[in-house]
Each structure stands twice: as structure tokens, then as C-alpha cells.
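To: structure desk
From: M.T.
Subject: fold request, one chain
Message: Could you run this one when you get a chance? Sequence is below, nothing fancy, just the single chain.
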Amino acid sequence: MMDKNKEIKTTKELSDNDLVEIIRKKNQERYSEIVERYQKKLFVYIYRLIGNREEAEDLLQDVFVKAYKNLNSYDTSRKFSSWIYRIAHNESVNYIKRKSLKKFISWETIVSTKDKLDSSSEEEGADKAWIRKEVSKEVNEAIGKLPFKYKQVLTLRYYSDQSYEEIAEILGRPVNTVGTLINRAKKKLAEEIKRR
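Reply: Done. C-alpha cells follow.
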């Protein structure tokens, strides 16, 4: 009985890679813990890329099924989060290609939700909140005009808080290329904002 309590206690302390090893060797039912850890983050990432809630939920299920099927081929010397984000990225890109979507991200919805959380402080006056919301709206509209490759790196870097190394692994590109893409995306964004 004590061992069971100890196992339950350490579940939350397990790294992703330790959990993967347990799933591979002992207990496949613990895959639900992987789903629990990544469900919200991956949903937000997929939704930001494709802009459709129902489709994002379907794709998320596909991501978890694909990750489960390929768990034995996952290299535990690498970072699990980058590996599963890569699967989510590929599934999203394939969806976009299949649907030939023109509009990928509903940035206004995402940032306005974020703004509501940020501006919930009563200290901020209505005029400052309005100005900030207008600026956010302009930025979101400008981001919406960027090519997909720039939207993608900005989403990973500033909305998903991924490091350059993680983005490189997710996109399958060298870290230097990621840095270049982010810099170009920022310049394009600044140009688009000036144009407005």
C-alpha cells in the first residue's frame, strides 16, 4: 500500500521521458498522463494555426493517436515536448494544405482574450485599456497579413513561449534559420504596422 502511494506521489514529479519509459515498458494506460500534460497547450497551438475550434479538437486527437503509435520510435535523448509539438505542427500543416485555407489564425480573438486577462486590473483607466486594445487589434491585423512561415514562428516564440532550440526541433530547421525567420517576421510585422 505504501509503494502505491509513493508511485502516485511521484507521478507528477516524473519527467516526460521517464513517463514515456514507463508507458513503453510497464503500463500503457499511463499514456493518459501525457494527454493530460499536453492537451491544453497543443490545442491552443493547433487552434492558433488553423483558426477552427472543432477542427483543432479533431486534429488534437489525431496528434495523440499518432504520438502513441510512434512512442517506441521516440528518441528519449531528445526533448519530448519538441517531438509532440512537431507532430502537432505537421498535422496542422497537412490540414491547411488539404483545406487550402487562406486565413490561418484568428489573432484578434486570441489576443483580445489575453487582453481581457491582462487588463482585468482595476487600476488601469478605461482610456488606457481602450488604447491598448486598439494597439493589440492593429498588431493582430498586421500579423494576419504575414506569410504563414512568419505567423508560425511568432506563434511558437511569443504565444507558446518556445525557445529557439525548441522551435528548430519542431520545424525541423537549424537554430540559425529560426533566428533569421523570427527577425524577418519582426521586420515584416513592423513594415505592415507602418503601412497601416
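Reply (cont.): The radius of gyration is 19 Å. Let me know if you need anything else for the meeting.
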